[in-house]
Amino acid sequence: MKEDAGEIFFLRSDKDVLKYLDRDPAQSMEETNHWIEMIIDSTKKNDVVTWGITLKNEDQLIGTITIWNIRKEHYRAEIGYALHPVHQGKGLMQEAMTKVLDYGFNQIKLHSIEANVNPENLSSIKLLEKNNFFREGYFKESFYHNGKFLDAVIYSLLNPNA
User: Fold this and answer.
1) Roughly what angle, to the nearest 10 degrees, separates helices 29-44 and 5-13?
2) Three-class SS of residue 60?
3) Which of 17, 40, 93, 118 has the largest count of CB atoms under 10 Å?
4) pLDDT for 100-153, tens place per residue?
5) β-pairing, 76-83 with 63-71?
6) What CA–CA distance (Å, rounded) separates 34 from 38?
7) Dist. CA 122–CA 117, nearest whole Å
8) CA angle, corner 61, sides to 129 and 68, nearest 5?
9) pLDDT, mean of residues 32-37
10) 24: which DSSP letter?
11) Is the pLDDT of residue 49 over 70?
12) For the chain, what are the domain ranges?
């Protein structure tokens, strides 16, 4: 993952990638390296599972998909993802999502996986609905970012094998 620091910095700082993620952009490689170390440490503790997304037969990172906020006692976790804008809309995240959901349900033995989505992110909502996530709730002005109160939509998927 450390060898992908440049690509990770891009994914964590590009305005198009962050458009609906409602978080501050990474400001430096030092900040990116700190995030990478946090992910490595959290992975060792089984608190997070992060995959890099690449094109077939290529090594360059173009995105990430993560199972995080794992609440082991409730068999529930959250999924998050980001993809380079050049590669969006090509079915790559759908392919990654299928594999990660299978891993979450069949390897980690989760009962449910949730996604917290900006309600304006129609592409993400479409991806979640295509994967049978259902809308659990809509929270008006549920968090504050960049001087604004923002809404959030929570989608969930129950383990289809349960």
Assistant:
1) 110
2) coil
3) 93
4) 999 999 999 999 999 999 999 999 999 999 999 999 999 999 989 889 999 999
5) antiparallel
6) 6
7) 9
8) 50
9) 92
10) P
11) yes
12) 2-158
Query: Domain 2-158's class?
Result: alpha beta
Structure tokens at 157: 């998927």
Which pair of structure tokens corresponds to residue 49?
């599972």
Per the listing, tokens 């609906």 go with 20
pLDDT of residue 162: 77
Structure confidence at residue 1 as a pLDDT band (50, 70, 90): low
Beta strand 134-145 pairing with 148-158: antiparallel
Can you list the pairs that 6-10 forms with residues at least 24 positions away whose Cβ atoms lie under 8 Å? 7/60, 7/61, 7/62, 7/84, 8/32, 8/35, 8/36, 8/61, 8/64, 10/84
Plot region of 142 (φ>0 → left; ψ -120 to 50 → alpha; else → beta): alpha
- Whether the pLDDT of residue 2 is over 90: the answer is no
Contact predicate 119/138, CB 8 Å: yes
